[in-house]
Amino acid sequence: MRDQRCSYVVVHEDATAPQDLRGLAAYLSSLSITGCEVVIVDDSPHFERNRRVFRWVGRHVAPMPRHRSLNGTVDVVRAAQDLASHDKIIVANARVRHEAATLDAMCTLLDAHEVVEPQDYVEPMPWWGGIDAGRILVHRGIEPLPDHGATFGFRRTAIRGLHDALDDSNDDAVRRLQSLGAAVHSAESLFVRCEPPTPSSWLRERARQAGDDFAMPVKTAFFFALLPVAALLIAFGGASLASGYAGALVVGSLALALRGRAGAAEVFPLRACLFAPIWMLERSVSVYWALLRKLTGATVERPIEVAAGLPPAGQAASRRR
Predict the structure, then answer these.
(1) Which of 134, 141, 182, 204 could make a disulfide contact with 256, Cβ separation 3.0–4.6 Å?
(2) Interatomic CA distance for residues 256 and 272, integer angstroms
């Protein structure tokens, strides 16, 4: 058993079939060998069914009502603080695949920093994973903090004083901790692999990620304006002016992606940069989708539960307890 121990908290949300959970279960089982306490917070509609798989690899629990953020999803920081046993806590979504080396590096960095966020990357990279890679590279070209990072670590003692202020509708936990005064270290040269989501999961995440960015008004306003400006240019300036506008956006996004790839070429192939303009187009559509969901209150319940006619997972978890 390793000297550097931590708690590894993963939130599972998708209604994944049991046979499709074996890869995640095998990965989580391997973490115990590296000295990690594994906690699976299961917010899927099939908690009892998943228990048959997850009980063998870690502590399988349902989120409690106080673990909910204002939009109904799991507040990973609050849940991790309540459920983890160790001071060093690493939080990850179900697609993250840490290696022993990255876990060791995270634990070492947490000796000196309150919150540590490494850079995640997608491998393998289907076309929808390529769009995510393009988003990551564009964001790296602008600022060091990862955009919608898939994993981060924090010390429980370092942020204990923020506990009462953690609940927020913004799912980007690291940005929220930073806004509340936590010192965040962006480990942009520490790369952690993520498996791509399924196409259906990827589609569900489009509106959620765009909605999370409503906390950044300038970024959201930029994407809200892209399509209306293009329509106005076509209507009043003609196709040539609109083409110049589109060309500028393409060149600008490619330049940012290439800049973001600097220092990360070993995990981001050059073709990932080509997805940057496609991501900009996707986000310019998704931001309206997110607005519609916000106006109709659709963010309160997860799409899986609504489609299946199930109650929100928080209510189901309350009944189980």
Answers:
(1) 141
(2) 12
How is residue 157 written in tokens? 């003692």
Cα separation values, 263 from 140, 188, 251, 269, Å: 10, 9, 21, 12
Tell me the pTM: 0.84
Mean pLDDT of the chain, nearest integer:
85
Whether 14 and 73 have beta carbons less than 8 Å apart is answered as no
Q: Over 60: is that where the pLDDT of 164 sits?
A: no
The whole-number average pLDDT for the span 208-219 is 88
Tell me if 212 sits within 8 A of 173, measured CB to CB: no
User: pLDDT band for position 162 (50/70/90)?
Assistant: low
Q: With contact defined as beta carbons under 8 Å apart, do 115 and 182 qualify?
A: yes
- State how far the Cα of 308 lies from the Cα of 9, in Å rounded to an integer: 27
Contact status, residue 317 vs residue 74, Cβ threshold 8 Å: no
d(CA 222, CA 155): 35
C-alpha distances (whole Å) from 57 to each of 15, 33, 60, 311, 317 are 19, 11, 8, 27, 21
DSSP 14: S
